[in-house]
Amino acid sequence: MTKMASSGGFKKNVSNTSTGLENVTGTEYRQRSRQCLTVVPTARNWFSIFATTVVVMILVNIYYVHNNNHVRGALSRDLSDKDRFLNGNENYVNVISDLKRQLARAEEEIHTLQQQKDQHEQQQQQQRQQQSLQQGEAQKDEPPSDGTSQSPICQKIPLLSRQPTPSTSSLWSSHLSHIFASSRHPRDDSFLFHDFTAVLLHLLSPLRLSRSVKTLPRHSDVGHAVEKLIARYDYLQNKDKRKKKDVVPPLRILVMGGSVTLGVRCAWNPITSQMGRYGRLGCAWPLRLEKFINLLLGFDGVEIENVSIGGTNSEMATYMYQWGLLGRDPDIVIHAYSTNDMHVLSSEHARVRGLSLEDAVFETTQSFIRAVLSPRRRRRGAGDEDCGGRRPPLLVFLNEYLGNEQREIVTTTAVGQIMTLLCGYYNVMSVSYADVVRDWVYADTKEGWFSPEWYDEKGGFVREIHLPTGGHISIMWIIAYNFLNALTLFCSHDTRKGGANTEGQYGYHDNHNGLPTLKSQTPIANGPAIR
Fold first, then answer.
1. DSSP state of 378
2. Would you state the pLDDT for residue 403?
């Protein structure tokens, strides 16, 4: 028993010694057992962490070894690409060098061809000079190298000196601001008619104004008038250096007409009732035209004298002109008797003579044309001469008649038809104010800008022929437009001669403006009698 006890006690003592649980209660034992249970798993985790760390290090080494191999491959590829790039650049440089060499060779070839061309042109020039000498023509008589074909007169006019000569419409349209400013009446200080003038200028466009052109003057008559204008300009530019006896007067324009041209009832307008202070002559279109042209020219180039007398017609004007009752010889004569030629008094006078009104107008109009165009004996101090007398003036016919002396539209146009027929035959300029505004007036017979009032206060129809302010402003522009048209046509006329052949039938020149050389110089029979 003792042995067993001692033996169990030995074991018990040994157990208590190794665990340190001697004299420990049951509760404390359980607590310490739980602590031991916790310690044992923690030791195992350390082993797992160690093993995991070893595996991760192995994997990291494997990754770095693989990545180094990839980087080495990438670097090797980059080096190969660089080698290929350098090789490509060398090829590109070679191509550029080849192109530069080809360009240099091309430039040499161009230079050689240019030298050959210059030599060829020199040879042709020498050949032309030799041919000119053989034909007996001096080199200085050849057409200008710039190809200009204008009269030397037109070359002095800046607006018309370029080729081709600008058209009348383009010149008018491109200078509307200057035209508008020059249209202000000299006594209209505050420009009361500013808006009215602007709207009129808008309505009378170049397309509308072109309706007024009926017949054209002779080429030589226009040239003579332009020469006098340029002489006047040159004189004013050197006035201080000229002697008093060398005075060059302005271009003199003589206006002949009746009460319409005199300015009767010109004060009618839609703007103001103060136009009466201008006076009849001051309001009428002749004075306006003189101021307008001189402002456009920039110098006092023209002088207009209005010798209109109310109640006169072409028959009386013919006597006045033939008897020399008009003073100095004019350079331009404007005939403005169309309204009075259609007057009831003229109609009555024709009936007494046994003529129709149309026949009487034809007769008196032709008599006036012949009186003006017939050479007159030179008076002391007169200008150029023609057939031993003075040079006839440039004659202009103005048709301003719209009615209402007659009640039939066709009858009211008779004077215009006769004027156009005779002026075309005698190469006289004719202008029609009536054809410019006729459609507006007949479409509304109560309008008051271009025609007079045809109705009284009670609405009754009355006979009235005198134009309002708008009509006189419009006539000023219409005549100026026709003068400009004659000038542009004059300057567009080709003055150069053709080849060396002499002047042929009707003034034909070989190789002139592209015309061919005639195969025969024998005149062709039965041609027209061109004057």
1. P
2. 80
The predicted model gives 361-372 an average pLDDT of 95
Nearest C-alpha neighbor of 3 from the set 14, 11, 17, 23: 11
Pick the residue with more confidence: 10 or 149?
Answer: 149
C-alpha closest to that of 366 among 421, 322, 437: 421
Task: Indicate the pairing of strand 394-399 with strand 429-432.
Answer: parallel
Structure tokens at 21: 């649980």
Mapped onto helix, strand or coil, the DSSP state of residue 7 is helix
> What is the distance, to the nearest Å, from the Cα of residue 139 to the centroid of all Cα atoms in its chain?
38
- Alpha-helical runs (H) found in 139-193: 168-174, 176-182
Query: What is the rounded distance in angstroms from the CA atom of residue 337 to the CA atom of residue 365?
Result: 9
Could you give the C-alpha distances from 419 to 131, 170, 185, 521, in angstroms and in order?
52, 28, 31, 39
d(CA 333, CA 305): 10
Q: Are 262 and 308 in contact (CB under 8 A)?
A: yes
Distance CA 184, CA 473 (A): 10
pLDDT higher than threshold 70 for residue 469: yes
| Residue 415, token pair as written in the block | 């004077």
Model confidence, pTM: 0.69
Q: How far apart are the first and last CA of the chain?
A: 183
Cβ contact 461:454 at 8 Å:
yes
The answer to whether 285 and 475 have CB atoms below 8 angstroms apart is yes
What is the SS3 assignment for 256?
strand
pLDDT band at 147 (very low <50, low <70, confident <90, very high): very low
Tell me the backbone φ, ψ of residue 161, rounded to 5 degrees. Answer: -80, -20
Give dist(CA 405, CA 129) in Å, integer.
69
CB 402 within 8 A of CB 451: yes
DSSP 361-416: HHHHHHHHHHHHHS--BPPTT---EETTEEPPPEEEEEE----SSSS-HHHHTHHH
Average pLDDT of the residues in 88-100: 66
Phi, psi torsion values for 216, nearest 5 degrees:
-110, 155
Decide if 499 contacts 510 (C-beta within 8 A): yes
Do residues 227 and 153 touch, judged by C-beta distance below 8 A? yes
Q: Is residue 480 predicted with pLDDT exceeding 90?
A: yes
From residue 298, give the alpha-carbon distance in Å to each of 178, 294, 464: 11, 6, 38
Residue with tokens 């070359």: 155
Neighbours of 226 (CB within 10 A): 21
Q: pLDDT by residue (tens digit) across 16-73?
A: 444 444 555 555 555 555 554 444 445 556 666 767 777 777 776 666 555 555 555 5
Structure tokens at 145: 């190298």
Residue 218's nearest CA partner among 399, 433, 393 is 393
